[in-house]
Design a protein that fits this description.
The protein is of the alpha/beta class. It contains 15 helices and 11 strands.
């Protein structure tokens, strides 16, 4: 079937379970599309491993022991460690590294029956908003190869948008699932912090990092999220002791009476007119579906940028101290003593953005600055979380833009890293509060580039978010639009 790559996870699952197509046929189709690595989305591909997994899935489909997603392909962001594929986190310092175990998220999707296609390109150690910071070269946006796909999960978003994988994993620290999903016209969700295990997910900022699925539709994301989530208390101290949930079970609930909060801070100066038009159009669709738009305020939205860029680099400076050339990864060839080896290894192995954030983090944690910067940032973080709880007294779901503009062109922000940081203004607040958030295709803006609608829910309300997204996708076809040639 030549159009297998255009089918949803749900559709592929049905075909596989009714044996109208085999897992090997599906995997072969996607491997053929991945030939030549379009858009530089993949960092590691091993067709033998993929086909071996597909054959194992066919055997389970034949003997009745298949998992709920048996035989459906998936690709993993290169911050999830994997036994059968190299894991580099997009960095030279981990060039060629192979983990002796799988990340919990990888393991759970495999247990559900998914077949691994390979590892996806990303900003180095998930630090970036454009996927321009990968040590192995940038990912191209399938809608316009001169533009960025968003970051840091740009490889994941590009792979799904280009039909190279029906679904992918991503990670979201400050918006790195939602923003690339918006830029590439797909759907992505970041669950409540702690819903998905961080075990085996290379840490950037431990109090913010969260795994989530990326696919074309909310229905597909619900299927993957159900498989990914669940307690992992023995291996992840931040994992929540909550039972698994079937997020697809409540996708078709009515939206009649749903209160959608519209933060005035998300619609002010800096929001491009084309993005606002697309978001406003999606909100009108919600009104047609019976939802009520409620004005709210998130007064500390602007403070989320300085708060995030103090807390996240501080945690990164600690997390990345393990990459020193002693146990694994790159080691400098010429050095005089242990300290010299540390310095040269890290200088050679880390890219500029990673160095910038390590230095920022070390500074704000240093004696004399900890109280003035880091401690104050943590206090404001709590206030930002409180702002959301006050807002949820008046609404059930919060909606707004994902990013102030559509995807920009490569090099536009090359000399101004702060411009990339400012692009995260609408995604950072939910991350700092640990809330679930998602991006849903809402239309197109300048240059016919995709625009995403951001939906934010209260803690553990992923099912409600996915329901709202699914009902919008039943009423619109933006999530079905594809780049030319896909």
């Amino acid at each position: 079937m030549s159009d297998l790559h255009n089918l949803s996870v749900k559709a592929l699952t049905t075909l596989l379970q009714t044996k109208e197509v085999s897992a090997v046929e599906v995997a072969t189709r996607f491997l053929a599309r991945m030939g030549g690595n379009p858009h530089h989305a993949f960092l590691d591909i091993d067709s033998e491993v993929t086909l071996a997994q597909a054959r194992a899935s066919d055997a389970k489909l034949a003997d009745g022991t298949a998992g709920p997603l048996e035989g459906v392909p998936v690709a993993h962001k290169d911050v999830f460690v994997t036994r059968d594929f190299a894991t580099t986190a997009g960095s030279k310092i981990l060039s060629g590294y192979r983990s002796p175990f799988d990340a919990t998220v990888v393991q759970r999707l495999r247990t559900a029956g998914m077949v691994t296609l390979g590892k996806l390109n990303c900003d180095e150690f998930a630090m970036g908003s454009a996927n321009e910071n990968s040590a192995y070269g940038p990912v191209q946006n399938p809608w316009d190869t001169a533009r960025v796909p968003g970051g840091s999960s740009g490889g994941s978003a590009a792979a799904v948008a280009a039909g190279l994988a029906p679904a992918a994993t991503g990670t979201d620290t400050g918006g790195s699932i939602r923003q690339p999903a918006s830029f590439c016209g797909i759907t992505g969700i970041k669950p409540t912090y702690g819903r998905a295990s961080r075990y085996g997910m290379i840490a950037y900022a431990s109090s913010l990092d969260q795994a989530g699925p990326m696919a074309r539709s909310a229905e597909d994301c619900a299927l993957l999220l159900s498989a990914m989530c669940g307690a992992d208390l023995d291996r992840d101290s931040t994992s929540l002791d909550m039972p698994t949930e079937d997020f697809a079970a409540s996708l078709n609930h009515s939206l009649e009476g749903l209160r959608i909060g519209i933060p005035k801070e998300f619609f002010g100066e800096g929001l491009a007119a084309d993005v606002r038009a697309a978001v406003d159009g999606a909100l009108r669709e919600y009104e047609k579906l019976g939802a009520k738009l409620v004005p709210i305020s998130l007064p500390r939205t602007e403070l989320s940028i300085p708060v995030y860029y103090i807390i996240a680099p501080a945690e990164a400076s600690s997390n990345l101290s393990r990459f020193d050339g002693v146990k694994f990864g790159h080691r400098a060839k010429d050095y005089t003593d242990l300290v010299d080896m540390y310095k040269k290894t890290r200088a050679e192995g880390f890219g500029n953005e990673v160095k910038r954030r390590i230095m920022t983090g070390a500074y704000v944690l240093s004696h004399g600055y900890y109280d003035a910067y880091y401690l104050q940032a943590q206090k404001i973080r709590r206030m930002i979380a409180d702002d959301f709880q006050n807002a949820f007294k008046a609404c059930d779901v919060i909606a707004g833009p994902v990013a102030p503009s559509v995807a920009w062109k490569f090099g536009d922000n090359a000399n101004d890293p702060l411009a990339d940081y400012l692009a995260d203004i609408f995604t950072l607040p939910a991350s700092l509060a640990g809330l679930p958030g998602m991006s849903v295709p809402a239309g197109f803006g300048a240059g016919s580039m995709p625009v995403g609608l951001q939906l934010i829910g209260n803690y553990f309300q992923e099912a409600q978010l996915l329901n709202a997204a699914h009902r919008l996708q039943q009423a619109t076809d933006f999530h079905l639009q594809k780049p030319a040639g896909v």
